[in-house]
Amino acid sequence: MDKLIIHADLTKGHIRKTIQGHFSEHLGRCIYGGLYVGEHSDIPNENGIRRDVVEALRAIHLPVLRWPGGCFADEYHWKDGIGPREQRKKMINTHWGGVTEDNSFGTHEFMELCRQLDCDAYICGNVGSGTVQEMSEWVEYITSDAISPMTELRKQNGHAEPWRLPYFGVGNESWGCGGNMTAEYYANEYRRYQTFVRQYHPEDRIYRIACGPSADDYHWTDTLMKQAGSLMDGLSLHYYTVPQDWKHKGSALEFTEEEYYTTLRKTLFMEELLSRHSAIMDRYDPEKRVGLIVDEWGTWFDVEPGTNPGFLYQQNTMRDAIVAGLNLNLFNRHCDRVHMANIAQLVNVLQAMILTEGPDMLCTPSYYAFKLFSAHQENELLESHLQAEPLKAGGETLPGLQESTSLAPDGTVHVTLVNPSLSESRTLRIDVQGKTVSSIEGRVLTGAMDAHNTFDAPDTVRDQAFDAFRAEEDGLQVTLPACSIVHLALA
Ligand code: AHR
What we know:
The chain has helices at residues 51-59, 107-117, 132-143, 149-156, 183-195, 218-228, 257-267, 269-284, 318-333, 365-373, and strands at 2-14, 21-23, 45-46, 49-50, 64-67, 91-93, 99-101, 120-125, 167-170, 207-210, 234-241, 291-299, 338-344, 354-357, 360-363, 380-387, 391-393, 396-398, 402-407, 413-419, 426-433, 440-446, 464-465, 469-472, 475-480, 484-490. By secondary structure, it is α/β, with parallel strands linked by helices.
């Protein structure tokens, strides 16, 4: 029988809530239609922001939101998105479908969204086609309470007080859509641009994030850490799970069991990426001051048939939920280095939490995976050892089970377990050392690999109460259904 030993008295690091962060770009229907419908819309809204979406996202305790891109960030000029809406410049969204961006959602609207979501703001600045002055003035506009042309402008635009800006990114994918730079060139640019990301409130500093590597570009990490490590708080990492290849990625809904297991194997490559980038960072930063910020991750499939290829709209199944569960467990287990992670993207784009169609909305299986993991936010990671028979299926060999375990401030131990098998339930004995467990509560998310929610049947996949466990003399025995994520709260 598989076995999990939890050392409830051995903590290993802090799980920042920002590990469960999100990303929203001016791409397809993420911002417009998904999050923002405007004040005059028939869709219920507060200051133009959809009430139904905000309510759903608050329920999973969304901790931090990255904006405005993505590739869009390096062609975004923030001054086009402030002031009276009817006077705002229109632009072409060249990366994403060539559609007209009317800039009706800008800095004030994003900060209002963060207020409604009660989350931290993470803004990505424009290095690719913007100036140092433009970036510097944006930070001044948002955060300064001194007297200056930028703070006067903010006041004229209706916001007397500065906002908090906890996180700022200096460019996005500068090795690609953000300017096609080499690591050496970008490292110099980073040094220069970050100098002018001023800290107007030394007691509430802005956490500066440098553009990091694409997937396994270890040279990029090494160069950035060597040349600019002391000037950054975080270094980003982007890695997407693409089942087939970038030309034919595979369908979100129609896939074989082999493709399911291949998708999981590819997503588990994240483990190697976290370990190897962390090892490079350790050479320059053994105290682990600089965070690895996985600010784009998730599944990337072919778009749904009949939808705009530039809008990256895809459905979301139990396979996506399992991908989310595996990654969230990995981020927990690497919380000494991973300070933040942002799944791409929040609404209607790639591995979304929410899909909308006009006034309708639904929560995806990935949303429910995040819900089960939310109990880990701001807990301490616990030492745990899992012995589980590997899973051999679909031509792949995968971990039979996967878990992470944390200790909440009230003493409750939270365990999240993923059973990736499509055919086998697994029985697991859990031995909790250093704590007497007097009560157990569980939730489960399970279904067929392609089970998903539609606007006609929005509740096909959702989390349920879980009671397939029993206390025995030598521990707890739990039976995990096939293709499932289970959250146990051991009090
Ligand atoms: O998330 C979609 C795109 O993927 C982002 O704009 C870009 O940063 C990445 O290549």
